[in-house]
Specification:
Elements (H helix, E strand, L loop, with lengths): L23 E2 L12 H4 L5 E2 L10 E5 L25 H11 L3 E4 L9 H9 L4 E5 L21 E7 L3 H5 L9 H8 L2 E5 L6 H8 L4 E4 L12 H14 L6 E4 L3 H4 L10 H11 L4 E2 L13 H9 L7 H15 L4
Parallel strand pairs: 3-4, 4-5, 5-6, 6-7, 7-8, 8-9, 9-10
Antiparallel strand pairs: 1-2
Helix pairs in contact: 2-10, 7-9
């Protein structure tokens, strides 16, 4: 479904840089809840000069890396990867270079609870990779890991998933309750996948105003395509409802995987636009989750989808969404 009223630009990215000396003023976003702690988390709107498009820092907010199943890097029983072959450091780097992607946030997949391969990537290429690590939420002993979590070189925060009946239950049966205050106290950013459970995070965001929470994939996952007529609009509504909390932001990484159309995936434009209007450029992050929809588009098309095909984004907006915002939110220098 095309988004009515939008004219999609056709000029190339390098041709769309703002004229020298022009200043673009970001719109001030008003949040429904005034929180003192929120002032420290939400970046105040300022006059900012857009970066020339050719110099824009592009950061992919989510890519899974994994190795083959082996005795020294075993997958959990029954675990299934998103691709038949491993997605490795050596595979990712040339793709990033070709597409002009400067950095990637590695999110270790649910094949096991190991972060070592992702941290290896960050150690070898510290200017290209950072890690949002996994942690066994079901084990209260994991709390002891959090105070020193970011002392691991390349570690930026934690990613937690509630995408199966047993893990979704952790949000209501008390299993995950220890984590939110512990992560807040440790100053950790938290990315969360909780399709259908996003409203539960309103209470978490309100109780822990200094806890940085990032909604994965617009509140969607690839299964949303099956019941898209009802499920996708509802999930977007749920994600937008959290925008009133300054400590909540969103990864716009669910569009390609949920689109039923080829590039430029115009059936998802209306949802991207709604989320952007709710959260603003400094709380929205471009991300690909590329292994989850690998055959749907090249890496370069995933970049130009945002830089050339979304007419509601100004050049200044693109600076934030394509990299500046996630670097600021995760404090990734």
């Amino acid at each position: 479904m095309a988004c009515p009223g939008y004219s999609l630009p056709t000029t190339k990215r390098r041709q769309r840089a703002a004229p020298a000396g022009r200043t673009i003023i970001l719109t001030r976003r008003k949040f429904g809840t005034t929180l003192v702690a929120g002032a420290a988390l939400a970046t105040s709107a300022q006059q900012v000069r857009p970066q020339p498009a050719g110099k824009r820092t592009i950061v992919d907010a989510q890519v899974h890396f994994w190795k083959a199943n082996s005795p020294d890097w075993a997958w959990d029983p029954g675990a299934k990867p998103q691709l038949p072959e491993p997605f490795t450091i050596e595979r990712a780097l040339p793709m990033m270079d070709e597409a002009g992607v400067d950095r990637v946030v590695i999110v270790p997949p649910g094949l096991n609870d190991r972060n070592d391969y992702a941290l290896e990537a960050a150690k070898r290429y510290p200017n290209r990779f950072g890690v949002m690590g996994r942690i066994p939420l079901q084990d209260p002993k994991s709390a002891a890991l959090l105070p020193a979590w970011k002392q691991q070189p390349g570690m930026l925060g934690v990613r937690v998933t509630f995408n199966t009946p047993p893990t979704r239950a952790w949000l209501s049966d008390g299993t995950a309750d220890w984590f939110w205050p512990a992560a807040e106290q440790a100053g950790l950013a938290v990315m969360f996948l909780a399709v259908g459970e996003v409203p539960r995070f309103a209470r978490i965001a309100e109780r822990h105003p200094q806890l940085t929470l990032i909604i994965d994939h617009m509140g969607l996952n690839s299964s949303s395509r099956t019941n898209r007529i009802t499920e996708i609009p509802s999930a977007i509504d749920q994600a937008i409802a959290l925008s009133k909390y300054p400590n909540v932001s969103v990864k716009l990484s669910g569009a390609v995987g949920n689109s039923l159309e080829p590039y430029p995936f115009r059936d998802m434009t209306v949802y991207l636009h709604r989320l952007f209007d709710a959260y603003g450029p400094q709380r929205c992050y471009w991300g690909t989750d590329i292994t989850n929809s690998f055959a749907s588009a090249s890496y370069g098309q995933r970049v130009t989808h945002f830089t050339e095909e979304l007419s509601f984004l100004s050049e200044s907006d693109k600076d934030w969404v394509m990299g500046r915002a996630i670097l600021a939110r995760l404090k990734w220098a």
